[in-house]
Specification:
Arc Repressor Mutant, subunit A, single chain
Length: 320
């Protein structure tokens, strides 16, 4: 039997009453996902001593050691693995309870957190946001633009309600809807292409401009479109990447609809060379599964799904 009351869980286990808090459950989940107390403290926005004390108190209360602490990266014990699934279920049920309660009261979420990969076409987002603004003018949108694994990490750490990204792993606890396929083109300033694209030294002499993965604790490195023959300039901003390529500092992959004007005016040219090619990648809309979305977030999800069909037609005509 489990009863939830003001952040407290009262669990009856084999005639023993165990009292724990929802904060302890969230701490358990954060440490398990991030692999360290330090990283979990950043996710939870709490001090490391507070996080350590919380998980220690939980282990003492249930009389089970949840983590192996013998190595640099904290890992779940066998018992911890079993309880981790139950902790996720409790967390999801609490979130659903809160959302459904607000829905019954007719409450609209004051804020929605969205993470969008930098490859996502801006023209797709604009049409959706225009619709959303008209219907939910009082809801604040917290919009983060991420690179490679950044959006995925935000979703897994519950820092975003929904995400739009081409880079998402295979998770049983994530709902994924394919929106469209987007074209990623290898491009450079026209003068660079005209002067040296047929020169075998082009890729060794000309740096590839790459935006760094914005994920911090995902535990895996995503390398996309990197040419090992080129020197690399690593930057943190997609707009700066485009500007550097436009001004002849190097070459790189950019999303097709974001450079239609530059391609038409021939300020940028598509690189055609051995082992360098255009890429067509899927774009996904994602949320945590079994999670009830609030009225505004649910409508935003539907807007994205509805707009995808219209966008696909526009996009195909744009990049052909």
């Amino acid at each position: 039997m489990i009863a939830i009351n003001y952040n407290v869980l009262v669990v009856e286990l084999e005639s023993k009453v165990i009292i724990m808090t929802l904060d302890q459950i969230e701490t358990f989940i954060a440490i398990a996902r991030s692999g360290s107390v330090r990283r979990a403290s950043k996710v939870l926005n709490k001090s490391q001593p507070t996080v350590s004390a919380s998980i220690k108190k939980l282990e003492e209360e249930i009389n089970i050691e949840l983590f192996n602490r013998d190595s640099y990266r904290v890992t779940l014990t066998e018992e911890g693995h079993t309880l981790f699934g139950h902790a996720l279920l409790i967390s999801q049920q609490v979130e659903q309870f809160k959302v459904v309660s607000k829905r019954l009261l007719g409450e609209i979420e004051p804020r929605i957190k969205i993470a969008v990969d930098s490859f996502c076409p801006l023209m797709f987002l604009v049409s959706i946001l225009e619709k959303f603004k008209k219907e939910f003018s009082q809801t604040k949108l917290d919009l983060d633009f991420e690179v490679l694994g950044g959006a995925e990490e935000k979703l897994l750490n519950k820092e975003s309600d929904i995400v739009v990204t081409p880079f998402i792993g295979d998770y049983s606890n994530v709902d994924i809807l394919k929106i469209c396929e987007i074209s990623i083109l290898p491009v450079a300033n026209h003068s660079l292409v005209e002067q040296g694209i047929n020169n075998t030294q082009f890729f060794s002499d000309t740096p590839q401009i790459i935006v760094k993965d914005s994920s911090k604790e995902l535990g895996k490195e995503i390398n996309y479109g990197i040419n090992e023959s080129s020197r690399q300039w690593l930057i943190s901003d997609q707009t700066m990447k485009k500007d550097l390529i436009l001004n002849g500092f190097g070459w790189g992959y950019l999303e097709a609809s974001s450079i239609t004007a530059e391609l038409k005016s021939e300020k940028l040219k598509v690189i055609e060379a051995k082992n360098i090619s255009n890429k067509l990648i899927p774009l996904y809309l994602c949320k945590a599964s079994k999670r009830e979305l609030g009225p505004a977030t649910n409508k935003l999800w539907k807007y994205v799904a509805q707009e995808s069909e219209v966008f696909n037609e526009k996009y195909r005509g744009l990049i052909q």
